[in-house]
Amino acid sequence: MRILLSVSFLMLVGVAHAEVCLAQVHLAQVHLAQGCFSGEVTATTALLQTRLTAIAGPELDESQDVPGAEGVVSFEYGTHPELTDGLRTPAMAAMADKDFIVRTKLTGLAPGTTYFFRPIFGASEANSISGEICQFQTLAGPHSDAAVRFCVGSCMNYNKFLYGRAAKSSGPLTATEEDKRLGFPAFVAMAALQPDFFVGTGDIVYYDNILNGPAETLPELRKCWHQQFRFPRLIDFFARTATYWSKDDHDFRFDDADRRGDRLPPPQTGIELFREQMPIHAPDDADSPTYRTHRINRDLQIWLSEGRDYRSPNTLEDGPEKTLWGAEQKQWLQRTLLESDATWKILISPTPMVGPDDARKKDNHTNLGGFRHEADEFFSWLNQNDVSNFMTFCGDRHWQYHSIHPSGIEEFACGALNDENSRVGVKPGAKNGTDPEGLIEQPYTYPEPTGGFLHVSVESRSPLGSHLTIEFRDATGSVLHRVLKTQTAP
């Protein structure tokens, strides 16, 4: 957060008041160059997070980083836009061993309610100032017919965005100098839609797409997060949009990484760092799995899967013993799907399950010699147990598509968030793909590579039923394709 005092401001409010403001800036001695997050919002709880920094941003320091700063943070929150009814969390210390990140969990919130919050931060409690007011909305809950809108994005490649061909970009080079100062244009387009929440499906940063070599040490890995989230467009978007995050290969270790080998970073570092950087669990929770489910309203439930922590080696022969999810996650997924009475059941996966994908890969559920047995077994289980209105949304693939598996399971790929990281996709029947016989039906894939995201809305119009709309949008927000599904009320 930057505080700018212009000459006109001084004339308007008076020198005495300006001196007070300058004193506050001096006393604070710390900044919020990465803004604030609300994460993992439920009907009654939410996580709030910020990071104290030594510089104001968005410019980086001489080492191309956003260094952290020690200090204290508390959060004021309430339902009044100006926080006249605000409660305040206890002060927490921002410490180097946690990358100066402070996170707290709010409980006892009201369902379907807009909450406002702001950080109270400084070098000490006595020298603290108030940050900008942010907001989030709690989930409406399983008995509500309230409409919901959300966005799904993936593959936010910082270096391709900034450096284009030098960083081996695959898509069109459209980022302007203004974009490179402010951040990915897609966040402007998503903000205009005023979504209730955003789901990042993985590859939020790219440890292995660095111009001078991959990030391997803890400071290098953390720098990737600092660089990504200091952009003003991202700060503005996340100040008013709740978030849910999953990791994939590039924000775990490196391309197609599993848990094997000595190549840096080690797998445990990748697991722990993602939990450190993203507001998924309370700060004292080191054990809860990162797979989870959220009931959004009466008609919608989402599942967020974990694809790196429990997987078998990629090169293991495919078969009943090979798993991308692990036995416990698979059992949890099946159990919670059977328990759900939501109209629409959406699994948001970091990697594809239907595809098609490149034949050369062995990393995901679509790949020949990869983890296809587990996917086919799961799809058969869905049909045998009459799990209706189930579909998958996926990241990882850098192109947008709507595909239908021979079993009838539909998949919607959000593509890469920025143009420079997009590419032409693999189509059903392609000899270099995972569906050479053309068994997959593909109602849509974009004709030219472009960055973008999915925009999803669910409306309940009793007694007419529930309406699910899935829009493929490019990075400017233009609708490329729309799918409308209706479930008639019984």
Distance between the termini: 51 Å
What's the alpha carbon Rg, rounded to whole Å? 23 Å
Percent of residues in helices: 10-25%
Number of strands: 22
- How much of the sequence lies in strands comes to 15-25%
| Low-confidence parts | 1-28
Question: Which structural category do the helix and sheet elements fall into?
Answer: alpha+beta
User: Main beta sheet: strand number and arrangement?
Assistant: 7 strands, mixed
- Mean pLDDT level: 93
* Assembly state: single chain
How large is the count of helical segments? Answer: 10
For the largest sheet, list the strands in their spatial order: 13-14-15-16-18-17-19
Rough shape? globular
Features:
single chain, 490 residues, alpha+beta, 7-stranded mixed β-sheet, 6-stranded antiparallel β-sheet, globular, disordered N terminus
How do the helices and strands line up, and which of them pair or pack?
Layout: H1 7-13, H2 15-28, E1 36-39, E2 46-51, E3 71-78, E4 87-88, E5 92-94, E6 101-106, E7 114-122, E8 128-130, E9 134-137, E10 148-153, H3 158-163, H4 177-182, H5 186-192, E11 197-200, H6 218-228, H7 232-238, E12 242-245, H8 267-277, E13 292-295, E14 300-304, H9 327-339, E15 344-349, H10 372-384, E16 390-394, E17 400-404, E18 410-414, E19 441-445, E20 452-460, E21 466-474, E22 479-487
Parallel strand pairs: 10-11, 11-12, 14-15, 15-16, 16-18
Antiparallel strand pairs: 1-2, 2-6, 3-4, 3-5, 3-7, 7-8, 7-9, 10-20, 13-14, 17-18, 17-19, 20-21, 21-22
